[in-house]
């Protein structure tokens, strides 16, 4: 007999890093209070679900400092370094389990000082059957992917688990599943919702760059060249110092900007992507943005901007809506990519459309 509260959204988390820390803190932070306390949320009530309805029921990681601990403790373990904005995160009763490693761990991470080193657990890795069993046993509604950038094989492993268990999949990283026609069809055929790929922060470098690029287009300014340089000191930036893990990330961020430009820029005229790891920045991400264009009469102009944000809370503000969109899609029996949610919330969705149009489509989807 199911004990699943029909008003709850049971989530399982892959990777208990900074982003998961911010999400779990946020769920606790928004547990009480009314709509007048919704600061930082795009939607207080989304399809009848509120933040307090989200419940963590399973979690996997590969770091020995997190495996075996309650999620409420694991989110504050090293190498996590994001802001602590919730004074009290109650014990969840959910123990972080050892994950399936594959390429979800970059070996160069072990070469850094202790504060940033991944200490790979020697616990036994679960096979697919074990993960599927856990998803079913916990009556998980949504599986949330927070694996490191470049985790192609590991993401595909867990996507297979979601399909087999009939669990909605939210893919927050730049591994192309929802935007891959083959994978998209498999989720559609199975009647399982998927939202992805690569989460777009609440107010981060990509969304700002997109909005400005769209503004150039709509105001008749010819964009000739642009760059977006980012620095940060969290494990995401450290992981991305391994350039071999960056191919899909570069594509995802670049296409997010190219898709709203009036004319596609030549490769040499656009650079969008992670740039450098600066340890003392911790979870603070700094974006340096430059855009050069031509105004009326071909008169040149340029725009330069510096944006500084705490990276992981910036992500969690979007994830909390993606989770609820995945759940209402599941409630409505909709399988495959959830296009309105993906277009608004992700850098590399199956369908790229301007953000104002994506916003309208999302609101229509939420209304049903």
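Q: What amino acid sequence fits the structure above?
A:
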């Amino acid at each position: 007999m199911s004990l699943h509260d029909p008003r709850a959204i049971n989530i399982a988390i892959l990777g208990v890093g900074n982003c998961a820390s911010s999400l779990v803190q946020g769920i606790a932070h928004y547990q009480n209070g009314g709509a007048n306390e919704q600061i930082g949320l795009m939607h207080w009530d989304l399809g009848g679900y509120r933040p307090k309805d989200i419940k963590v029921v399973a979690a996997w990681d590969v770091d020995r400092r997190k495996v075996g601990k309650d999620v409420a403790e694991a989110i504050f373990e090293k190498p996590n370094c994001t802001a602590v904005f919730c004074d009290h995160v109650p014990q969840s009763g959910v123990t972080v389990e050892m994950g399936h490693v594959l390429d979800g761990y970059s070996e160069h991470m072990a070469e850094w000082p202790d504060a940033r080193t991944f200490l790979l657990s020697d616990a036994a890795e679960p096979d697919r059957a074990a993960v599927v069993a856990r998803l079913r046993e916990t009556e998980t509604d949504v599986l949330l992917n927070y694996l490191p950038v470049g985790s192609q094989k590991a993401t595909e492993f867990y996507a297979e688990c979601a399909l087999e268990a009939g669990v909605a999949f939210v893919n927050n990283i730049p591994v192309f599943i929802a935007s891959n026609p083959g994978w998209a069809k498999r989720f559609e055929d199975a009647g399982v919702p998927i939202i992805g790929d690569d989460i777009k922060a609440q107010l981060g470098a990509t969304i700002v760059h997109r909005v400005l690029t769209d503004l150039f287009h709509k105001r008749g300014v010819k964009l000739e060249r642009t760059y977006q340089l980012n620095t940060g000191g969290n494990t995401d930036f450290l992981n991305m110092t391994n350039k071999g893990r960056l191919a899909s990330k570069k594509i995802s961020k670049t296409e997010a900007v190219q898709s709203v430009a009036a004319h596609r820029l030549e490769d040499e005229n656009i650079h969008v992507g992670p740039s450098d790891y600066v340890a003392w920045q911790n979870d603070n991400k700094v974006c340096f943005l430059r855009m050069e264009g031509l105004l009326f009469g071909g008169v040149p102009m340029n725009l330069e901007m510096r944006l500084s944000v705490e990276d992981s809370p910036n992500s969690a503000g979007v994830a909390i809506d993606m989770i609820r969109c995945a759940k209402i899609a599941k409630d409505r029996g909709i399988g495959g990519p959830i296009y309105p949610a993906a277009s608004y919330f992700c850098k590399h969705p199956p369908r790229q459309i301007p953000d104002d149009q994506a916003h309208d489509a999302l609101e229509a989807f939420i209304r049903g």
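Q: And what stands out in the fold?
A: The radius of gyration is 20 Å.
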